[in-house]
C-alpha cells in the first residue's frame, strides 16, 4: 500500500481514512477539479485536432502523439458545461490511460499536484456544479474552496469507449 499512512493497531476503517491522495488539479470554467495522479500519462499543450466524421459531440477529434493516434475529448462538453475557448495559452490536454485506451481530455488550465488526506473528501451529492455524481469520486474540502474529484473511467460509457 505505497503512499498510505497506516499506524499499527488502527482499525482498517481509520487506516483508509488516513490515506493521502495525490491529485493533479485543473480548471474548467471557474470550477477546480482533481484526478488521481496515477491515472495521468502526461500533460501536453493544445495542438491542432483532426475532426472525425460522425463522432459524438464531445469528441473534438484525434491527434498524432509521437506516432500514436489518440482521441481528444472536450471535457467541458462531456460533463455538460458550455464549450470554452481552446485558443487560450493555458489550455492543455491531459493524456490518460482508460482501460487500455489512451485518451486526451481538453481542460482550461492545469494547476498543481495536491496531496490531501482522504478524510477531507466527502461523497458527492447527487449533482455538483451541474455534473451528475456518477462521474464524481468525491468532493475535497480544502481550506478556502472545494475540489471536485473526477473518476475519469466513469466519464465514458462502455459504448462510448468502444467507439473511441
Give the structure's gist in a few sentences.
With 164 residues, this protein is mostly beta strands.
Pick out its properties.
mainly beta; six-stranded mixed β-sheet; 164 residues; OB fold (Dihydrolipoamide Acetyltransferase, E2P); 3 helices; disordered N terminus; globular; five-stranded mixed β-sheet
Structure report:
By secondary structure, this protein is mainly β. The protein has a single domain, classed as CheA-289, Domain 4 (OB fold (Dihydrolipoamide Acetyltransferase, E2P), Beta Barrel), CATH 2.40.50.180. The protein contains three helices and 13 strands. Strands 8-1-2-13-12-9 form a six-stranded mixed sheet, with no helix packed on it. It has a five-stranded mixed sheet with strand order 3-6-7-5-4. The chain has a two-stranded antiparallel ribbon with strand order 10-11. The longest helix has 6 residues, at 12-17. It is globular and about 45 Å long. Mean pLDDT is 81; it is low at 1-15.
CA gyration radius, whole angstroms: 17 Å
What is the N-to-C succession of helices and strands?
A: HEEEEEHEEEEEEEEH
The neighbouring-strand order within the major sheet is: 8-1-2-13-12-9
pLDDT averaged over residues: 81
Question: Topology of this structure?
Answer:
Elements: H1 12-17, E1 20-28, E2 31-36, E3 40-45, E4 59-65, E5 68-74, H2 75-78, E6 92-98, E7 101-107, E8 109-117, E9 121-122, E10 127-128, E11 131-132, E12 136-141, E13 146-150, H3 158-163
Parallel strand pairs: 2-13, 5-7
Antiparallel strand pairs: 1-2, 1-8, 3-6, 4-5, 6-7, 9-12, 10-11, 12-13
Amino acid at each position: 500500500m505505497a503512499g498510505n499512512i497506516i499506524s499499527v493497531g488502527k482499525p482498517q476503517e481509520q487506516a483508509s481514512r488516513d490515506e493521502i491522495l495525490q491529485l493533479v488539479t485543473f480548471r474548467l470554467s471557474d470550477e477546480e477539479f482533481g484526478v488521481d495522479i496515477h491515472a495521468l500519462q502526461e500533460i501536453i499543450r493544445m495542438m491542432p485536432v483532426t475532426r472525425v466524421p460522425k463522432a459524438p459531440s464531445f469528441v473534438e477529434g484525434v491527434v498524432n502523439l509521437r506516432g500514436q493516434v489518440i482521441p481528444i475529448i472536450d471535457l467541458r462538453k462531456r460533463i455538460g458545461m458550455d464549450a470554452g475557448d481552446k485558443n487560450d495559452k493555458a489550455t492543455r490536454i491531459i493524456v490518460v490511460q482508460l482501460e487500455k485506451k489512451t485518451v486526451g481530455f481538453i481542460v482550461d488550465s492545469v494547476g498543481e499536484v495536491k496531496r490531501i488526506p482522504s478524510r477531507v473528501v466527502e461523497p458527492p451529492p447527487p449533482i455538483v456544479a451541474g455534473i451528475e455524481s456518477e462521474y464524481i469520486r468525491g468532493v475535497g474540502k480544502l481550506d478556502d474552496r472545494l475540489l471536485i474529484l473526477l473518476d475519469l473511467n466513469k466519464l465514458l460509457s462502455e459504448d462510448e469507449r468502444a467507439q473511441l
